[in-house]
Records
---
Amino acid sequence: MAATTVLNKQKKETKQEKEGLNLFQSTQTIIKKALDKLGYSEVMYELLKEPIRMLTVRIPVQMDDGKVKVFTGYRSQHNDAVGPTKGGVRFHPEVNEEEVKALSMWMSLKCGIVDLPYGGGKGGIICDPREMSFNELERLSRGYVRAISQLVGPTKDIPAPDVFTNSQIMAWMMDEYSRIREFDSPGFITGKPLVLGGSHGRETATARGVTICIGQAAKKKGINIKGAKVVVQGFGNAGSFLAKFMHDAGANVVGISDAYGALYDPDGLDINYLLEQRDSFGTVTKQFAETITNQELLELDCDILVPAAISNQITVENAHRIKASIIVEAANGPTTLEATRILTDRGILLVPDVLASAGGVTVSYFEWVQNNQGYYWTEEEVASRLNTVMVDSFENIYETSQTREVDMRLAAYMVGIRKMAEASHFRGWV
Ligand SMILES: NC(=O)C1=CN([C@@H]2O[C@H](COP(=O)(O)OP(=O)(O)OC[C@H]3O[C@@H](n4cnc5c(N)ncnc54)[C@H](O)[C@@H]3O)[C@@H](O)[C@H]2O)C=CC1
Ligand SMILES: O=C(O)CCC(=O)C(=O)O
């Protein structure tokens, strides 16, 4: 490598570290702060700063043209002191080991915040499902399960949907696992179709949880949801249902986006029409001539901003220009640490990802409980239980942030890490 290239790489890394763009390192930084605030020793941090297990797999898949393509996949298990690990599987071209590790650590925090009997796990495959056929996706999904089957299971590690994965992919994965084990195993995975043991309300759960957090945050800020201007980045599972719920609650959804651009109308977008137009990957803007960029979207004039797409979207570059009074993170890791500090100093109420997006895993837990007992709940039962969990979790973290005089993210990490640290201690690990 030429000397200038090395120098440029070093400069880039230094900037990344400074800005906290490296998700894994910035997660470690906050975990350390949270454990220090809670009075835990250095050795507890040594245990919790990395996943306990990280599996990398190579998955050969026969493509439709007859050629074999080999994909790389990961499954990370952060900590299983509380119970089996739990978390989604992401299919995305930018999946990488560090990101999957960070995502599994966030799952631990989410499970701690909403008090589930799980630790955190996460998986991912480097691929672009938008460019693959239905049959290729099925072979890839089944190949991934064969590759990780020794490490996962209903009482070990329970996968679920995440970016660019859905209930059909969960169904293939469940079927493959059941074939390997030679018995029906609905509790192996959540986010399944209803007929295969899925739960009412799982598809909309992440958006419902975010909506509940928006309601609580709006009360704290004295903002009326009716007529409030809302901007949502991402129009997939989390973003599209959220836009719909906000629209139905009387809010004015003025901006939405997908991976290809954003739509803006100061008078409010026709969300029901956009929902009909979006494809299964949450793409809708390609059909419109007049679009703005994702970066412009984030800086629009609004009361409530919801990043619901990918990580590192709000950084030092744009944090000063954000106009919203409330930011609720539906996506995992959309705001860097430095940007969190800027936004908090500016008096913006930021509801962190590990709290705001925990509705998804909460209803996944409900699904797993229903699979284990073989008795299924109504949509109303699921919604009511989710509401109680999310309201209590929000209030707990808000209260912690006020009494301990820390920002909402650090408060959420303190609440989220405590149970895992205690369980690790009682097991005699540290
Ligand atoms: N689905 C779930 O239950 C949960 C999802 N999340 C998080 O919410 C976020 C969105 O996930 P889903 O809605 O499930 O995914 P999805 O795959 O259904 O939708 C993703 C959306 O993000 C957009 N997108 C992709 N790349 C982008 C880019 N570079 N710039 C702007 N937009 C881009 C896509 O076009 C699509 O509209 C992710 O961060 C995910 O980890 C968090 C908790 C649970
Ligand atoms: O539903 C689940 O188990 C996990 C959802 C997930 O991956 C997430 O919250 O990031």
---
Amino acid sequence: MFDIEASLDSRLLAVPRNRPTVMFPEALDPRTLEAACFLGRFIRPVFLAPEAEVRAVAAQRLAHLGADRVAYTLSESAFVDPVSRPDLVESFATACVAFSKAQGRAMDLGEARKLVSEPGRFGIWAVKLGHADMVVGGAIHEPKAFFRPMVDILAQRSVTCEAGVFVLPDEHPEEVYPHNIVVFGDVGVNASMTPRTLAEVAVGTCAVARDLIPEDVLPEIRCAMVSYSNRGSDEGPSPELVRQAADLVPAILAERIAHSPRYASIQIRGEVKVSVALSRRSAGLYHSDGLPWEGVPNVIVCPNLDMGNLLYHLYATRFPEAKKFPVMFGLWFQGVDLPMDCTPEDIRLALKASLMRLHAYGEWKRTPKDTFFRRHRVLVLNPGSTSTKTSVFEGDEERFTEELQHSAEELKAFEGRPITDQFTFRKEAVLRFLADKGLGLGDLDAVAGRGGLLRPIPHGTWKVGAAMLDDLRAGQRGEHASNLGALIASELVAGTGTPAYIVDPVVVDEADPKVRISGLKELPRRVISHALNQIATARRYAEEHETFYERVNVIVAHMGGGITVGAHRKGRYIDVNNGLDGEGPFSPQRTGTLPAGQLIDLCFSGKYTKAELKLKNKGRGGMIDLLGTSDMREVERRVEAGDAEATLVYDAMIYQIAKAITGQVPAFEGAPIDAILLTGGMARSPKLVGELTRLTAALGCPVKVYPGENEMAALAKGALRVLSGREAAKDYPPAI
Ligand SMILES: Nc1ncnc2c1ncn2[C@@H]1O[C@H](COP(=O)(O)OP(=O)(O)O)[C@@H](O)[C@H]1O
Ligand SMILES: CCCC(=O)OP(=O)(O)O
């Protein structure tokens, strides 16, 4: 059976995106609520009911989903009782009056207010006026109370239609529909058919089929416009209607193909007798004018709504295991209609199908207005040794990012001086960036800077305050460009009331006391790691599973110029190697753990100065020392070319990473590990990922890959969690 949900998921997840806002007028219907609990990574739900009522339904009816999934979905949702938003009711009512007038129907404002206060209409008008992107209903509303007004108000074409998509179970004889996939049209909209309407329905239904079913599964969309007559074999108004419609199809289809060449794989034939469409044997009997393709169609377009509706419900009841859902054509992906007898799975599939089409074909970027989910504007600052990476985020959306380069010439003036001396010079570059984007400091809701070398602190978003600035200025825990993040952020917001934050700096340390014990009292272990990307990756995994960071057990391997392998136990970053100071696997630029005795001998051999050894440990060690390059792509090329030395070193590094991963098992105290997450630049290598998957297979948990490091998004998200009230910002230094 073609896995249509997996196909939709992979297309939805192919590119990380902003999430569309979806209105749920039927918020108290447990099926709808259940479906929403599986859509958190794709949408922002707005439930049109009081929050307490939605929570009560969830508590009573959704216990089988597990508390985490439901709690996560509700934490990511908005709850709006229409009567509590008189501002919106007024604006929707005004638009409703104007709309009715344009349609030649008189309506007074009082009547309109009453109408749009009803959740179904409220949801439709919210979409129409740009407050949301999609509305879904029909599971409890009768068609005339939701579906008809939705089509009326949201229609973008003169003819709209509804396609019924089925993937039938394997027990269905496959020779009828290839891969057991069939799409029916029109199953819901057009109560009266004209030849033009029917021709538009045929093309629209085929367009839906083409959008949803990948070409490698169905190379051609083959549509039969069915009738009781086969190409003139019988007479009557119905075959005549289909015949006239079939004559109009080529011009309408040509328009579609001009719009997008992917529709060139659509073939439509009418009128075709139902038996000819569904049986090769019957087709043979009518061979004199058979179908233009070998075999059978995958789209059946019906001459009237009764027949389309009958087919939908006949197949739905006859094959309860079928994957089935309706899809609207002509509403610009803004409306989802549900049959009253739908299941939570049908709702989930219908929404995913519309969302996939919205993203892939609707050129959707963002919800036009941020009424239900405020899009806070956050400036993100990430100072590195030779650049200051600067971004502006609006909500989840990365609006601008630039790596503000500081030339060697500019930096020469600061050589040998504390990093804080670069403060003014870098701040000016950030101000120029903002001006260039037409933004002033007053346009920002927060500034988030990369945290520097501070005292060890728990994970989270930290307010930039006097004590933090003092520590960074003093540079007692080390000099690093990232120390400038909080300093510049603080200066930019001074006197404006706008908050400045840092998020998960490299010094995040939540390790158990036992993790700190080394075999020498004087040398307790210290934790310095890629905390920002470690925790952001674990959060991303949790979000993809519609749950919280606090609910997952994962091991994260950040594999970049430095490598850290961390254990995240239910929201606590419990153990990780010190990736900055010679612990863990060797990496492209760092030695990792070295044999202690031999290291001591080397230190006292007189062969190297302290500075030289420090540089070997971090910067000139690892792959650079062993193979003369820190570029793993070059190493892999050498491995591919059969270079024995490169192969040995490459295998050794992967072996050490795998050992570090499996070495984190005790951190979970026997609890199951949900997943191993591979991230950083090296996670782009399929070869390396494949080898790590093989070597850690004994753990019995899946390996998920998140290539690169999304530091800018991670910083923005940390600030956004605070701005949206989901997390409280912490005060530095933490109370001990
Ligand atoms: N496609 C790839 N295949 C293998 N290694 C890669 C690939 N892309 C980047 N890398 C390696 O990842 C490392 C850099 O990781 P990254 O996380 O980008 O860097 P940094 O830690 O310097 O911020 C380098 O060793 C680089 O060669
Ligand atoms: C391991 C601490 C942070 C760090 O070393 O970052 P980079 O690997 O990006 O230099």
